[in-house]
Amino acid sequence: MRTGISFEVSPDDRSRLEALVRDRNAPQNHVWRARI
Known about the structure:
Layout: H1 11-22, H2 29-33
């Protein structure tokens, strides 16, 4: 993995990502559709 690369997410996006990670039953395609 490359080092020295970082990115920032807004608080709203962070909470959405955390919710997806927390919910183990979330469909995998949610991850594929996430806006990066």
